[in-house]
């Protein structure tokens, strides 16, 4: 399985403070893009290429909900090479078996999907397996103990992409980044304008769909503006 060289890990840079102690510096939060639930492949491929041209993106998740398998396969075969050529991890939503068959870099599973251990068994130790934890510290600790590569909290804001969500508070991001090594992903209605609080509170990744694909100035400018916002916020941390 071609594994993108992107590591979903949180490493701490170290710098020496004035008093000579070592202080960890924040690794900048990174973007994790999610496809719309339904796409026209030709026009989305154009938008996807534009987003990748806009700047740093860590991951992309293909999340075609309730679409025929052959449509998902066709989209993955078109989009995955673009992602991996740009060193962006390509994840599939919901379906570990299909992720493995497609040679994806990983899979995202929620609480109503296949259990983590079964998913890990299918995709193997080298693939990325992320887990939805909504607003639950218990789910996050359980996923981390099981070996999840990231835990996803949300929704932090109302989402136009997913109807049924559980509201999460930014405190869970600072709790997670202060307690567990597993990287934390923030998701749900995230925009350039409302994301600073998520970055400030320790989100390792911002998982965004409409905030990029529906951005007024286009997906390339969206990625650029998200990264500029992240750099600005991290500089003040
Ligand atoms: C990064 C990320 N976080 C959460 C989700 C939601 O997953 P799930 O709860 O399984 O809901 P669906 O996306 O399957 O509708 C996600 N996909 N990605
Ligand atoms: C896929 C997904 N999961 C969520 C959760 O709360 O678990 S919110 C969501 C949709 C993310 O898209 P947008 O950035 O357009 O809100
Ligand atoms: Mg799911």
From TrEMBL:
Residues that hold 4-amino-2-methyl-5-(diphosphooxymethyl)pyrimidine according to the record: 61-65, 93, 132, 162
Under SUPFAM superfamilies, the record lists: Thiamin phosphate synthase (SSF51391)
- Binding positions (Mg(2+)): 94, 113
Query: Required co-factor?
Result: Mg(2+)
Enzyme Commission number, as recorded: 2.5.1.3
Catalyses which reaction(s): 2-(2-carboxy-4-methylthiazol-5-yl)ethyl phosphate + 4-amino-2-methyl-5-(diphosphooxymethyl)pyrimidine + 2 H(+) = thiamine phosphate + CO2 + diphosphate; 4-methyl-5-(2-phosphooxyethyl)-thiazole + 4-amino-2-methyl-5-(diphosphooxymethyl)pyrimidine + H(+) = thiamine phosphate + diphosphate; 2-[(2R,5Z)-2-carboxy-4-methylthiazol-5(2H)-ylidene]ethyl phosphate + 4-amino-2-methyl-5-(diphosphooxymethyl)pyrimidine + 2 H(+) = thiamine phosphate + CO2 + diphosphate
Q: Does the keyword Metal-binding apply?
A: yes
In the record's cofactor note, how is the cofactor described as bound?
Binds 1 Mg(2+) ion per subunit.
Superkingdom classification of source? Bacteria
Offer an example of a GO molecular function term for this protein.
thiamine-phosphate diphosphorylase activity
Q: Name one Pfam family in it.
A: TMP-TENI
Which pathway is it part of? Cofactor biosynthesis; thiamine diphosphate biosynthesis; thiamine phosphate from 4-amino-2-methyl-5-diphosphomethylpyrimidine and 4-methyl-5-(2-phosphoethyl)-thiazole: step 1/1
Q: Where does 2-[(2R,5Z)-2-carboxy-4-methylthiazol-5(2H)-ylidene]ethyl phosphate bind?
A: 159-161, 189
Q: Which UniProt keywords apply?
A: Magnesium, Metal-binding, Thiamine biosynthesis, Transferase
Domain called Thiamine phosphate synthase/TenI: residue spans: 31-211
Using the UniProt record, name the top-level EC class of this enzyme in a single word. Answer: transferase
Similarity field: Belongs to the thiamine-phosphate synthase family.
Function description: Condenses 4-methyl-5-(beta-hydroxyethyl)thiazole monophosphate (THZ-P) and 2-methyl-4-amino-5-hydroxymethyl pyrimidine pyrophosphate (HMP-PP) to form thiamine monophosphate (TMP).
UniProt name for this protein: Thiamine-phosphate synthase
> Which organism was this protein described from?
Sneathiella marina
Q: Which gene encodes it?
A: thiE
């Amino acid at each position: 399985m071609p594994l993108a060289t992107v590591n979903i890990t949180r490493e701490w840079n170290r710098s020496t403070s004035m008093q000579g102690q070592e202080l960890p510096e924040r690794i900048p939060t990174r973007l994790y893009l999610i496809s719309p639930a339904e796409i026209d492949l030709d026009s989305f491929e154009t938008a996807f290429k534009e987003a990748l041209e806009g700047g740093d993106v860590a991951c992309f998740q293909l999340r075609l909900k309730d679409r025929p398998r052959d449509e998902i396969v066709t989209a993955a075969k078109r989009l995955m090479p673009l992602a991996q050529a740009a060193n962006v991890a390509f994840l599939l939503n919901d379906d570990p078996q299909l992720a493995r068959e497609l040679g994806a870099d990983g899979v995202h599973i929620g609480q109503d999907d296949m259990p983590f251990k079964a998913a890990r068994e299918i995709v193997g130790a080298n693939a990325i397996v992320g887990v939805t934890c909504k607003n639950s510290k218990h789910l996050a600790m359980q996923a981390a103990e099981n070996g999840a590569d990231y835990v996803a909290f949300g929704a932090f804001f109302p989402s136009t992409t997913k109807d049924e969500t559980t509201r999460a508070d930014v405190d869970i991001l600072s709790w997670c980044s202060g307690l567990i090594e597993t990287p934390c992903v923030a998701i749900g209605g995230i925009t350039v304008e409302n994301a600073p609080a998520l970055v400030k509170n320790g989100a390792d990744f911002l998982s965004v769909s409409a905030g990029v694909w529906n951005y007024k100035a286009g997906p390339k400018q969206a990625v650029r503006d998200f990264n500029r916002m992240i750099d600005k916020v991290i500089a003040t941390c």
